Amino acid sequence: MIGRFPILDISPVTYFGGEFIGAKAIPNERLPIGATIIREGHDSFEAFAVLVDPKGKEVTRTPMREIWPKSARYEAFLTPDKVGNWSFFIEVTGENPGEFKKVLISRSDRYPIKVERERALVGSWYEFFPRSEGATKKSDGSITPGDLKSASKRIPAIAAMGFDVLYIPPIHPIGYAHRKGKNNSLVASSTDPGVPWGIGNSAGGHDAINPDLGTMKDFEEFIKVAKKNDIEVAMDLALQCSPDHPWVKSNPEWFTKRADGSIAYAENPPKKYEDIYPLNFDNDYPGLFKEVLRIVTFWIEKGISIFRVDNPHTKPVHFWQELISDVNSKYPDVVFLSEAFTNPPMMHALGKAGFQQSYTYFTWRVTKQELTEYGQEVSQHTSAFFRPNFWVNTPDILPFHLQSGNPALFALRAVLAATMSPSWGMYAGYELYEHLPIAEGKEEYRDSEKYEIKVRDWEGAAKKGITLAPFITQLNEIRRKNVALQRLRNLHFHPTNSDQIIAYSKRDGENLVLVVVNLDGFHAQETTIHWDLWALGVSKESFDVLDLLDNKSYHWGKETYVKLDPARPIGKVAHICRVKL
Asked: What is the rounded CA–CA span in Å between residue 304 and residue 299?
């Protein structure tokens, strides 16, 4: 039944799996509460958004305002201040017409808000393969691989660039059966290290360390070094096995068998993964669930607080809902990142099932229209249940727009990722402008690190000045010092006269940041930006800004002319300006 004042289309409200699930939030994040509210006639009313803490106590009652005249759409912002299961409701009050005044009240149902720790929304991610960090090439061309000990020596440099999450691909033993060689060849030589995602051999499975990388003690020391440098380590949770994994013999029912009795290897047409067996959750769900929960708990006890989950869309959605719920009930700070480059409904379902973050389509969004539409989607339309992590590249993905190797393109894509999304990431080698594809028309790296060990000369690149690392460091520092860039729902785009220049703003309290990016990494572009002062929360038609990239001050106005030339220092691919309020 509707109340005396109908309260309709309430947001953020998500119904999933037969229940309302909590709108995603972090402490001190302003959560927009919206509703359509009407009443008969022309008498007035007052509407309030009411915040209820995890103990059931009403803590704030915020007046709602009509977004624009006669729209009947009302909005207010609520700000939970600590982790927990909060809720909200909307209350409307008014008086009845006539001689005897009476206060009339309508109240909506209560809807949940799930407030998780800050890392669930905010982070600068860096990915490297431990076996490549510290690897050296001998005079005969052979390679001495790195390990967890040598990789730990790279951690301070990652921290110095401003990254606070280090993601490492699987560090478990790698199978020998059908091991892949260089560039995904079907025949591996005796020196090919194998694909880390082909997990398991006689040395163990998902709860073991690859002996080539060291021991469990080495891993524990690796975690200590990371923590000393204020970096969280994200472990890869890849629920798949090599043909040599102990589970193949101990629990053959966990795999899909062909008619001839053999186990089917993984396929993602047109790709084939002959070195990997996918899991089957239908034959012994309780047993497999129990084992996965044991493995996740094992690594949490070793100091892991973040899991980057490989291909979660190839497993039942309800499995993730149950697993994440069980883990977070005991370890509420653990964060799960979904690596699901698949169709949007599945990506969104995984977010609703409990994944705190997800990879996104940002990697392929290039034009002003594409970026604007996608930015609006993730910041407004899906933010109640889907938190984006913008990656500029991955070991699997070398986007076409980077294949020229133009440093300005690498710089501008980093600006977009680091300022549009509260979480962004890059894979090692991006700062060295690695850009050679395996073949024309392919978005994959030649000599991919998935199949071989990479030897990189970080110090030599720094001495020669052929690295983006200083610029990346600056971007991450800007992110740390500006809370507006650490929020998702405050992204607003502003019109420009050029399809090659995109402009957007983010504001949180008194922190207002304006970003302007030249999307053309090869040519200078100029335009007039038409700043929406209402969206900025600025009353004056002109204002002073400080460019955080070159530390120059500008006097901008409602109509602002800009010119960005990528041929100049890479800072000129963009303006990142803080408004002096």
From this structure: 6
Q: Which residues of 416-437 are buried (b: 16+ CB within 10 A; e: fewer)?
A: bbbbbbbbbbbbbbbbbbbbeb
For 148, the domain range is 123-176+191-238+285-482
Residues 96 and 149 in one domain: no
Mean pLDDT of 11-34: 97
Determine contact, residues 164/123, Cβ cutoff 8 Å.
yes
Question: 């186990």: which residue's tokens?
Answer: 263
Please state the rounded mean pLDDT for residues 279-291. Answer: 97
For tokens 């080698």, the residue is: 429
Same domain, 311 and 229: yes
Residue where one domain finishes, among candidates 115, 136, 166: 115
d(CA 393, CA 575): 23
End-to-end CA distance of the chain: 47
Active-site residue set: 310, 339
Residue 250 counted as domain residue: no
Q: What is the pTM of this model?
A: 0.96
Q: What is the mean pLDDT of the chain?
A: 96
**CATH value at residue 39:** 2.60.40.10
Q: Which of 115, 144, 168 is the last residue of a domain?
A: 115
**Is a pLDDT exceeding 70 seen at residue 570?**
no
